[in-house]
Write a structure and sequence with these properties.
The complex is a heterotrimer. By secondary structure, chain A is of the alpha/beta class. Chain A contains 19 helices and 14 strands. Chain A is globular and about 85 Å long. Chain C has a single domain, classed as MetI-like (MetI-like fold), CATH 1.10.3720.10. Helix content of chain C is about 75%, strand content about 0%. Classes of the chains: A alpha/beta, B mainly alpha, C mainly alpha.
């Protein structure tokens, strides 16, 4: 009898406590490598300032694709288990179309215009689909040209502005160094997302566009340029022989070991090759915009992650509030200092604390400002698959330029019907 | 045994062992290396400067122990369920006069062999409707089905071999049918049950795709999925992952080493007859 | 019908009930969902298109889809190479493992370890073994004076590398089944044959193999069904590349359903794959029954 009474009191007590706090719990999904530990700190700070809100961080798969496939399964089932998600920059169009992301215009009201204007343009644009803002930029990313400062100085060559210059410089250095392990230029070649950029960057540098007026633009002469460029680089021995199996991080590892002259890679690269304990290239790394064709304008591939609110969330208002907090200059500064994430606000690049932690951000800003979106379409995964598998096939030598373009044309044709 | 024969036997053993152990040994060696050493040319086989740092990092960077526990729970419980259900079915089909038992057996197998991978989306929806997502049951039930064909087959061939009228004899002595089942058949089938259990356990321990979909809270993840979490969007830290892999393989290797006699024996006694 | 046989039948169905229930829940109901979905046009990323009923259009699309046929061809290559391959290697390993060892467990463990290693990781490990620069295969070739081969970027070499990995992994389970079978063969048969002057080869062909036939058939069925569903190893080793030359049907289904969110089409493909598996199993069963009848005759 005594025990029963104790139980009842305890039960009632916790019930009252639960009602009293009336806590909202927000579930946020992030990927294994978006620094969930730093996110936790940011979330704790928010919880302190917003009693009554609890943030639970759910950590997903390590790659953008693994995360997306999991989210596909969850959202296809209209599950309300997640309130906010961190999504890749190529997803907003798909999410908007599928009705998975809650449009934020209503919640932002008059603030929307000011908020969007405060971001780096390309990143603000990437999150607007059909005039609606479907996600908020969280951190930026882009592809940079990294190079061995010391080798370029040794051979008295300036950082290349055109692809031809890059090829020449690489050849001169490779001949001079006479090191069989040295690769002239490394970029993604395996059938992964990064390989889409291996095609798009030279295309844009030649003034080309993948899609014009809603239709694939692959008959234009520029469409051949990326294949021809890679072909020239391969024949000249500037590209490594096994380019068809090179994935993003492999480039970093090879560069870190001192075996690469030029590398096309994302923002995470810098920190690793400069600061890893076993790096052989500390202090020897330069970063600049990617080359273009002679007379063309350098463009880089946009990257980065956005905060989206689930359309099936049961706590939308609170979620939007938290999303706005995440997508703010203060948090951007925290992420830049603690996680070396590139900010989406231009002024943060010039912040003293941020620059102290990441001195290369001063060089990064102009590159990031020149970022262009990968094709914006709800069927992006199919577009990406068409581009990357053909570029991969070309690099592996199993398809000619004509065959690759023909396949791309037919596949993109059905998508952009 | 003459020397020549002994050498041949010894060599044969080495061939089999080496074939099986090479990747395991390679993972072990890699887990003791640093990433730079792994990427250096020419490649090294034995670690030049062995370090246990990867193991430390493996446990601290991800909740490896939680992964181990989750795998253990899911594998054990699904094995229990699978063996139980398969045993009942196998018994019914081989020792009771059930009409068209061959057809039922074939149907059972055919259905159970449907690629669970293609059922991922409908299965996910089902688990969500049942409110089982992120619970152990969401994996225990599919895993039981996964191993049902193999377990049923093993147990069926096992039961077929037991003296046909044993239950009848026991019942003549005054047992009920169920009593005969429990007191006579079950003890006799222990080896077969054992084998079926190990087969089911290994299948469950190693499964990846369903575990990825059904249990996605970090603390609930099973080992195979958890290990892929060490990789980054771009990075694949081989030495770190190798350390985690060693931790993952050791329990199951011990299990197999200890019970390998029983596993083979169980299949033998049943005389894998199909 | 006596009371006894009636209750026996009821007991039988009662005992079958749990298995049936489990299968109904986990397989039949989702399959029904899947096949039902295959008759609709469902593009999750384009909900404004609705989900119109299209009857057999998805299946017609599959028959006209080059990539589908390519994936079927690639899958067939894997099946045709790795099923006999695993059988041969498994048989060899089983015969070796059947020799009288003083200390059995290291051999048995070596035999079974590949089976215990999760598929995903076997794939990743072999990806590394066949790496152009850091892989041990090219390293061993270099030590033998042969030039490094572009294993994973040449379509034919990639297929070979993947087959090697699959055979290594699956021969382990085969070997287990066959070893069990080997141990049931009575020693007297071999002794009698020895008396008759049979060579080791003759013993193998006229005693071992025929006695192993049931074990071989069971192992082959399981191996074939799994081979038709090949996913993890090629996915880990090449991601389907170069191009899509190593992509299997299961990979194409996964990509279509979970990546492209084309549920209707993906469901149709999955149903087709199931039909293929059914055909294979039926084929085996017919062969076993026919040869069993031949033996009895």
């Amino acid at each position: 009898m005594k025990h029963l009474r104790l139980w009842l009191v305890a039960a009632l007590g916790s019930l009252c406590a639960a009602i009293a706090t009336a806590e909202t719990t927000l579930h946020m999904f992030t990927g294994g490598q978006q620094r969930p530990d730093v996110m936790r700190k940011v979330a704790d700070e928010y919880q302190k300032n917003n009693p009554g809100v609890k943030i639970e961080i759910e950590v997903g798969g390590a790659t953008s694709e693994a995360q997306q496939q999991y989210l596909n399964t969850v959202l296809a089932a209209k599950d309300s288990a997640l309130d906010l998600m961190l999504i890749d920059v190529v997803r907003p169009a798909q999410w908007a179309a599928a009705g998975w992301a809650e449009p934020l215009d209503g919640y932002l009201g008059a603030d929307k215009a000011k908020l969007v204007a405060s971001y780096l343009k390309a990143y603000g644009d990437a999150d607007q689909v059909g005039g609606k803002l479907v996600a908020l930029p969280f951190f930026a990313d882009a592809q940079f040209l990294y190079y061995r400062k010391d080798l370029l100085e040794k051979y008295k060559r300036p950082p290349p502005k055109t692809w031809d210059e890059l090829m020449e410089t690489a050849q001169v250095i490779m001949k001079g160094e006479n090191n069989p392990q040295l690769q002239g230029f490394a970029t993604a070649g395996a059938p992964i997302e990064g390989t889409v950029c291996t095609y798009l960057v030279p295309l844009w540098g030649a003034g080309g566009e993948l899609v014009r007026n809603g239709k694939p633009n692959l008959d234009a002469p520029e469409a051949r340029k990326p294949f021809e460029l890679m072909g020239r680089l391969k024949v000249a021995g500037v590209l490594p022989k096994n380019i068809g199996e090179i994935a993003t991080d492999r480039i970093r590892v090879d560069f870190q070991a001192g075996n690469v002259i030029f590398a096309q890679n994302w923002g995470y690269f810098w920190n690793r090759v400069e600061n890893d304990a076993d790096t052989k290239v500390k202090g020897k790394v330069g970063v600049t915009t990617l080359p273009a064709d002679k007379g063309g304008k350098s463009a880089t591939c946009i990257g980065g992650w956005q905060v989206a609110v689930s359309a099936f969330s049961k706590n939308k208002a609170e979620a939007v509030k938290f999303a706005r907090y995440l997508s703010s200059p203060e948090v951007s500064k925290t992420m830049a200092i603690l996680a070396s994430n590139l900010p989406v606000f231009p002024q943060v690049y010039k912040d003293a604390g941020v620059l102290k932690a990441n001195p290369w951000f001063a060089d990064a800003l102009p590159v990031v400002e020149g970022a262009k979106s990968r094709p914006v379409t709800p069927r992006y995964t199919e577009v990406s698959d068409a581009i990357r598998s053909n570029m991969n096939a070309y690099l592996a030598g199993t398809k000619t330029t004509d065959a690759a373009l023909a396949d791309m044309k037919s596949r993109l044709g059905t998508i952009y019907r | 045994m003459p020397l020549k024969r002994r050498t041949i036997v010894w060599l044969a053993g080495v061939v089999v062992a080496v074939n099986g152990f090479i990747p395991a040994l390679w993972i072990l060696a890699t887990s003791l290396k640093s990433e730079t050493e792994l990427m250096s040319q020419p490649i090294t086989y034995l670690p030049q400067a062995p370090t246990l740092a990867n193991y430390l990092q493996a446990f601290t960077e991800q909740p490896l122990l939680a992964f181990l526990w989750n795998s253990f729970v899911v594998a054990s419980l699904s094995t229990l369920l699978c063996v139980l259900v398969s045993a009942l079915a196998a018994y019914a089909l081989t020792r009771l006069r059930v009409p068209r038992s061959q057809l039922i057996m074939a149907a059972l197998m055919a259905v159970a062999m449907f690629p669970l991978v293609s059922l991922m989306v409908p299965l996910f929806k089902l688990m969500r409707e049942l409110g089982l997502l992120n619970t152990y049951l969401a994996l225990i039930l599919p895993y039981a089905v996964l191993s049902m064909p193999v377990c049923t087959l093993v147990l069926a061939s096992f039961f077929q071999d037991i003296e046909p009228d044993l239950e009848a004899a026991a019942m003549v002595d005054g047992c009920s049918r169920v009593g005969a089942l429990l007191r006579v058949i079950v003890p006799l089938s222990a080896p077969g049950v054992f084998t079926a259990a190990i087969l089911a356990f290994v299948n469950a321990w190693d499964e990846f795709l369903l575990a990825l979909t059904m249990l996605n809270r970090l603390s609930m993840r099973t080992l195979p999925v958890g290990i892929t979490l060490y990789q980054g969007e771009f990075a694949f830290p081989w030495p770190l992952i190798s350390a985690a892999l060693v931790v993952a393989i050791v329990p199951i290797s011990i299990l197999i080493a200890v019970f390998q006699e029983r596993v083979v024996g169980g299949l033998t006694a049943g005389g894998v007859k199909g | 019908m006596t009371r006894k046989s009636l209750s026996e039948r009821s007991l039988g169905f009662l005992l079958l009930a749990p298995a049936a229930l489990l299968l109904l829940l986990i397989v039949v109901y989702p399959i029904a969902n899947l096949v039902w979905a295959s008759f609709f046009d469902i593009h999750l990323a384009e909900p404004w298109r609705g989900e119109p009923f299209v009857a057999l259009e998805n299946y017609a699309r599959a028959f006209a889809d080059e990539r589908f046929w390519r994936s079927v061809a690639t899958t067939s290559i894997y099946v045709v190479v790795t099923v006999p391959g695993a059988l041969l290697v498994g048989l060899g390993l089983a015969l070796l493992a059947n020799l009288p060892f003083r200390v059995k467990w290291p051999v048995r463990l070596g035999l079974l370890l590949p089976w215990a290693l999760p598929l995903v990781f076997s794939g990743l490990i072999f990806r590394w073994f066949f790496d152009y620069r850091q892989g041990i295969v090219n390293d061993l070739l270099a030590r033998a004076g042969v030039d490094a081969l572009a294993w994973l970027t040449d379509p034919r070499l990639a297929l070979a590398a993947i087959c090697i990995a699959i055979v290594w992994k699956s021969s382990s389970f085969m070997a287990l089944m066959l070893l069990a079978g080997l141990q049931t063969i009575p020693r007297e048969l071999y002794e009698a044959a020895a008396v008759d002057g049979a060579t080791r080869w003759q013993k193998l062909v006229s005693i071992t193999l025929p006695m192993l036939r049931p074990a071989i058939m069971v192992a082959l069925i399981f191996r074939t069904i799994t081979a038709i569903q090949t996913f993890d190893i090629p996915y880990a080793m090449t991601g389907g590349g170069p191009g899509d030359s190593t992509e299997t049907l299961a990979m194409y289904i996964q990509k279509t359903t979970l990546d492209f969110l084309d549920f209707g089409y993906g469901s149709a493909l999955a149903t087709l794959m199931f039909c293929l598996s059914l055909l294979a199993t039926a084929g085996y069963l017919r062969y076993t029954r026919r040869s069993a009848r031949r033996e009895d005759a």
